[in-house]
Structure formats: C-alpha cells, structure tokens
Amino acid sequence: MPEFITLTGARENNLKDVTLRIPKGRLTVFTGVSGSGKSSVVFDTIAVESQRQLNETFTWFVRNRLPKYERPHADAMEDLTPAIVVDQRPVGGHSRSTVGTMTDIHSVMRVLFSRHGTPSAGPATAYSFNDPAGMCPKCDGLGRTVRPDWDGILDPGRSLAAGAVRFPPFAAGTWQGQAYTNTDELDPDKPVGEFTAAEREFLMHGRPGSKVTVKAAGGTWTTEYEGLADRFERLYLKRDLSAMSQKTRDLVREFLAEGSCPACAGARLNQAALASRINGRTIADCAHLQVSDLIDVLKEIDDPVARPIARAAVAALERVDAIGLGYLSLDRETATLSGGEGQRLKTVRHLGSSLTGMTYIFDEPSVGLHPRDVGRLGDLLLRLRDKGNTVLVVEHDPDVIALADHVVDMGPGAGTEGGRVVFEGTPVELAGSATLTGRCLRRRTTLKDEVRTATGGLWVKGAGRHNLRDVTVEFPTGVLTVVTGVAGSGKSTLVAEFTAAHPGAVVVDQSAIGISARSTPATYVGMMDTVRRIFARETGTEPGLFSFNSTGACGGCEGRGVILTDLAFMDPVTTTCHDCEGRRFRDEVLRLTVGGHSIADVLEMTAEQALGFFDDLGVRRRLRALRDVGLTYLTLGQPLSTLSGGERQRIKLATRLHRTGAVYVLDEPTTGLHMSDVEGLLALLDRLVDAGNTVVVVEHNLDVVAHADRIVDLGPDGGRDGGRVIFEGTPRGLLAARGSSTAEHLRRATA
Ligand code: ADP
Ligand code: ADP
Ligand code: ZN
Ligand code: ZN
After folding, report:
1. Is the CB of 13 under 6 A from ligand 1?
2. Which residues form a coiled coil (predicted)?
C-alpha cells in the first residue's frame, strides 16, 4: 500500500502547479486565507478525481447511469482512496426527515417498540410516520396541518358588502367575491360576526344544489355556489404550491395558520402506534426527549429480549451526544438544523459505519462550535482516522489545527495572489513558521478595554421559546454586542426573538441567496447594468448583447457557462459548456472589446482587478463594498452558487452597508475567515458601529468576543441545561465570571 496520496501539477481554479504528498491514515488540515485555494485542492481536485476514478471502475452499463465528472486540471493524481465529503450543505429540507430518520436511530426505535411495546401495534412499519401503516391519517405523518386562518380571512365586525372577506381574491367587488354578496341566502349588510350557525355554515360550505348569479366581463352567469372554506381549500390547499406563482404563494401564506395536527397532537403516528408503550412512554414521547435524556430512559429497559435492541439504540445515541448534539431530540426536523449541526450529524452516520481506507473530507467542521465543543469534534476526527481512514479538513480554528498530524498552508494571498503551498509540516512547525498562518498562531487575543457607551437600549422581555427560560435582556444601541454560549445554549433562538421584537433589524445570514443560476457577484451588487452600458457605448452596440440573460448569451448553455444535470438522489452535476467553453457569450459578442477586454474577460476579473479597470464611480463604489467585506478575490462572474456560507453572508453585507441608525444582526460572521481576515472583519464592524448603527453578532471566535462592547453569554450548557443568561457585561467583566465556559476559554486565550 502506498503511504501517500500524490498530486502533481494541480491547476484547478487559482492553483499554480501544486504538487503535494498527503499522508494516508492521517489527519491533514488545510489552512490559508479565504480564496487561497484550500477548497480547490481538497474539493475540486482530490474529491472530484477520486469520485471520477471510482466511477471508472464500474461497468459501462452502470457508468452511463452515474454523474459524469470532468477530470480536474492536474498532471497526475495517484493513489487516491474513495472520498466521502461531509459538508455543511443543509440536510434534506423536507419535513419527513428528522434527526431520528437521518441517523437511522428511528428505525432501531421502531424495531424496539414492535418487539417490546405493549400492546404491540404490529411489525416495525406500524411505528413509522413515513409509512401508511404507521402514519397519522389526518396529517399523513407530518405532525402538522395547515389550515386557513379564518381570524385573518374574515373580519367579524364587517358585513360581506363592507369587506368582511379580507383575502383579496375573494374580496367584495371581485368576480369571485360576488358569490358571497349576491347570494339570496345571506344578508350582505349583516356583520359576519352576527351570523347564525346556519348562515355561517352556508357561507363556508354552501348546500348541494344552491346557485348564485355573478356578473363577469362576458355577461351574467348563474353558477353553482361554492362555500368560502371549500373554495379556499380547493384552489389553494389541495393544489401543488409549486404550481402557483411566487406572488400567489406569498399571498396565500399570509392567510394560512399552521398548527399541531388535531388528531395526533404533532406525534405524526396513528392511534395504534401511539397506544403502544414501553415503561409508560410511547415512541413519540421517546422521540421528543433530548438525546442525552433518552439514553437514560433506554438504559432502564431490563427485559432480556428488548435489551440488545435498546443497547444498539443507546450506542448510536451516545455517538450523537459525544459530538455535542445531546441537546437535540430525534423528532427534530433536519430542515431546522444549522449547517454545523447538520455536518456533525452526518459524521455520526460515518462513525457508525465499518468502512475503512476511505478519505473523509470536512469543510470547516468547527462552525457553530464553542471552543469548549471543539475538543469533542477533535475526538471525532481522530476516531475516524484511527479506524484507518485519511481525514482531510479545511479549517481556521487554532484548536483543530493543533490536532493535525500534518498541515498544508495555502497562500500567500487570495485568488491570483494565492494558489501555492507555502508551508507543509506539523502544527508546531507551522506555529514557528513565517507564513501568515504561522504568525497568527503566535498572536494572543487582546481584550478591549475602552468600550463604547450605549446610546439607548432594545429589549427582549420574557422570552421562552425553545429552551429559553423567561429571558429578559437588553441589547444596548450604538455598540457592538456579541452573543456567546456553547452549542444549543439558545443563542440563535434569542437573536431570532430579538429580530422578531425589532422588525427593522437588518439580518445578514448565511442562507442561500435565492436568485437564478446565472447570478454572480457582479449582478448581485448591481453593477452589471452600468458595465453593459459602458460596453454598448464604447462598441456602438446594444447593452442587451452583454447580458447572459438575453440575446448575447451562448445558445448551448443559455448563458450559464455550464450544463447542469439533475440527478434524483444525488447532487446535480455541472459540466462546462462545449459551445462557449464556459465563457457564456456568443463569439460575436466576445469579439467586442473595451480596453482590449471582452465582457467575458471582465467577468473573469477579480473585484480587485476590476478596481484597476473601471473609472465609473458607481461601479467603483460597488467594488469597494466587496473589498470592505474582504471579498476582493472573487471573480465578477463566479456563480453565486459556488460561494460558501460565510462568503454568502459577506456579499449580502456588502449590499447592505452605508446605513446609519440601523440594527445589524449577524450569525457567526467569521465563518470561513482566516485568523488574519478576522481583523478586517472587526474593522468593518467598528465602522458600522461608528457610523451610528447597532451591531449584534452571534460568535465563538475569541478575538471577536474580546472586541465586544457588550457580551451576552448564554448557558450554562445546551438544550434543557441552557437557556439562561449567565453573564452580561464587558469583556473584562467576563474574564472574572465563574461558571461560564466562554469566560474560561477567554482567560486561556488572553493569558
Ligand atoms: P479557499 O478554499 O482557500 O477559500 P478556493 O479554493 O475556494 O479558496 O478558491 C481559490 C480561488 O479560486 C479563489 O480566487 C476563488 O474565487 C476561485 N474559485 C473557487 N471556486 C471557483 C469556481 N467554481 N469558479 C471560478 N473560480 C472559483
Ligand atoms: P445555539 O444557537 O446556542 O446553538 P439554539 O438557539 O439553536 O442554540 O438552540 C437552543 C435550543 O432550542 C436547543 O435545545 C435546540 O435543540 C432547540 N431548538 C432550536 N431550534 C429549534 C427548532 N426549530 N425546533 C425545535 N427546537 C429547536
Ligand atoms: Zn396527525
Ligand atoms: Zn455555453
């Protein structure tokens, strides 16, 4: 067995002939500033090539059914092992996917209940909410039902003629609304709140055979009367939401109320499954306990037949607990998990598997983790390694870097300034090296002594959502507040309550940017209209030619530059368009140049290079905003879908700068940032605050914590054991606090 994975002359994205030997069966951490090329090595080269070579081992018949990967740009790639990428992409969005189904622990629980629950509901599917045998018939196993929000749709104080129906498509005066004002059965001038039960029944459901006459453009029509509730249900609830326009969907959503299913009270299962208990608990009760509590409950099972199954469930649950997710419950929908939680949960699945000789690849697994929890994450990575796997991690966190057997530091800068290996060796050697990462590792965290004075205060009062325990806390205005606490302590919940209470807040999060596959940094920051006008003016043509959404676009790929192939159960595959070779435009358009550059050349410039090219003030202002948020290394034409969560958050921030008197809310803005970039982020936050804004961030990075004007520390632990404010005050005040993990780590970092 070769002991190394070798890459020779790798040139993907910004890589400059990178040649590397990565030790097998070891933990290798890739460091370097954002945009230096870490992902280009690990994801775009190693992971892609290993998948491609694996696919080639299948027969022609199977291969034709697999995604086609293009060979990454490199001279040679040898001795790869099959790669498993464990990333932060959100885990399955649909509501049938829960922590229990995703980890497969739910199926073990079903077997346990079918063998041992009394009375038994039958075989194991009778306990599955995703199987007709077990699901609640009322909500089809979703646990929730949506129903029209009649309090919102009908104003009881008004008559039908005076606008009692508030849902615009059915309002008085519209052709659909006439049905209700024109029927002989109802008094159009009587307030709806005074209707008799029979009248209300008629309004909502009508009566078979009743007719009504309405006037429409083409004349007068007599039609079947359809009750308000029946019509709403038929037109908006029984139809596929995705078939409606976004505008209709948003409108309908305003008039819907979602609630626990009345039949199963949210438990998702039918009556037979819910009648079956072990030690007094139903399977739904068990799924609702937090994992750390469920472990104790299952350990109490002493029946000799059930014990081995219970023990299998406990072993899997303990893996969830071991990576610091013991505060989750099995019934938690995966769509509500954060990216970091999802990534750690995916890892649990792999820990349980018996595969060895694989290459596991992680993307910044410390995201969302308090320094306290990073230790447990480290154990997890080492356990994967010790099972005989090669573990590759892209990471900025010094505690994870310290665990590495081998470090590859990329740089020296970002984009065209990066793409080289600037250091290889052990973490200790790295800390002694002259690279940027080395220098940052030697630096201490410095506490801010002079904190700003608040100009006022915004309050969250009596918050009790999720695990919060009647939390009342002040967010002072005109300062930088950092919310800290271990994973699951309630930070996101508290900040969500804060933004709900102060709806003017500008929330800058890491969620996907919901725009078309053609969006790029240039379109997103709003500079393309001007760029197209400049090209049209200088070449005597039409601005439309320079848009990859219109006439100038390559016909082969419709201006995307790539061909997207959707695969039912896998990630879609992208391949470069053969017609334009990824340049997105027709040849005629590419021949039109300004200052020697075609529109495609401009889109290949980084924001920094574009600053040297454009004089237009509006364009420059937008490019400078990208620089302010540390994204100068992005090319103007890079698809937004290739941006990481942290980059998405920063590009959103770039379009929302230059306000005063606003409240900014950011969730872990250091995600994806190298230690040296954190200073730039702090400078940006300072500028925002000094311009008269209020900034609230959720953050684990101790440099950011030390830089706060005010800290709100939640804890002491996650889930049931969290949800309290355990410290409020300045960084210096936190240093002296007892019983706070954040304080403990801050003391260590500043010592
Ligand atoms: P890191 O992981 O160190 O942040 P990346 O490997 O993601 O860096 O990026 C290295 C360079 O390659 C950056 O300049 C980035 O903008 C560019 N790049 C990354 N992905 C793509 C892509 N899909 N298309 C074009 N350029 C890309
Ligand atoms: P943090 O942001 O500090 O990691 P969260 O606010 O995400 O913590 O979580 C606090 C508690 O609330 C945890 O027990 C978590 O499981 C629970 N929780 C968070 N979001 C949801 C949700 N959408 N549904 C149910 N429980 C949730
Ligand atoms: Zn139900
Ligand atoms: Zn094309």
Report:
1. yes
2. none
